[in-house]
Every structure is written in C-alpha cells, then in structure tokens.
Specification:
The protein is mainly α. Helices cover 65% and strands 0% of the residues.
Length: 161
C-alpha cells in the first residue's frame, strides 16, 4: 500500500517518495515469512512443490503484466506531463492491490485457521552423519571453492600490505 501512496506525493516530494519506498521494502520483508508459512499450510493438500510453483508463477505473471500495463498507459499519455503520468500509473496499481485485499479477506473468512490444512506430523527419524553425507558436503565445499577466482583470492585485506 505504500507504493499506492506515491500518488499523493507532491511535485518535488522526493524525500516522501523515498520514505514510502523504504516503508514498502520493510513491509515486504515483514510479510514474506508469514506468507510462506500460510502457503506451506495451504500446499500440504496438493504438495509443497506444486503449491510454491503456482505461487511463483502468479508472482512472475504479475511482475510481467504490471510493467506491460504501465507501459501501455505511458504510451497513451506520452504527450502529457511525466509527473501526472506517473501519478496515473501508481493509481492504476490500486486495481490489482484492491483485488488482492478482497481475495485475502475472502480467504480469511472461508479459512480462518489455515494450520488445519497441515497433515499430522509423521514420526521423524533422528539425523545421523553417515559416510555418503560427509562425502557430499566435502564435494559441495570443493565445488564452491572452485568458483573462487584469482582476483578474489589475492584481494588485499585491511591491515595487510
């Protein structure tokens, strides 16, 4: 919602715009773990891989269609003032945001306890370090070390000449 508030930023209000973008990024960082938790509950019915794939597809679809829609608006308004064109673009972003909030409220009403989707826990087997696991970790470590290039290895470190 902080991005939608960019519509209200006056001309020359770059400090307000920067603050809103920082608020948006902070909000995204706060909501992502909760979203993933709820998604893990919901995907227990169809499988975690399939559920997360559907979520990722929808996320990428929005990441593609959003800019395409805004490009079309900017193309239609190419002779207008750029500031007013951006305001219109940010206002148009309110449409998918309102749809998302509406779907969220519907889902909240229909499924108030998403943790009920989770299947009962199976009996877990305690982890043991066996030979194949150790070999795998060593191989991955050596593989990763192969990505170090000469520049990285010879990079001067503070305090050393």
């Amino acid at each position: 919602m902080a991005i939608l508030a960019l519509v209200l930023v006056p001309r020359g209000g770059w400090l307000i715009a920067c603050t809103l973008i920082v608020v948006q990024r902070t909000g995204k960082a706060v909501k992502k773990p909760a979203k993933d938790t709820i998604l893990s509950f919901a995907t227990s019915q169809i499988g975690a891989g399939k559920g997360f794939a559907i979520q990722k597809f929808l996320d990428q679809l929005g990441a593609f269609l959003g800019p395409v829609l805004l490009f079309a608006v900017m193309l239609l308004k190419k002779n207008d003032d750029p500031f007013s064109t951006y305001k219109i673009c940010f206002a148009i972003l309110g449409i998918p945001a309102a749809m998302t909030v509406a779907l969220l409220l519907i889902a909240r009403r229909r499924y108030p306890n998403p943790e009920e989707f989770e299947a009962p826990a199976k009996e877990t087997v305690p982890f043991r370090m066996n030979r194949s696991f150790v070999l795998y970790i060593v191989a991955i470590g050596l593989f990763a070390a192969g990505f170090l290039d000469f520049t990285m290895i010879t990079m001067p470190r503070p305090g050393r000449d």
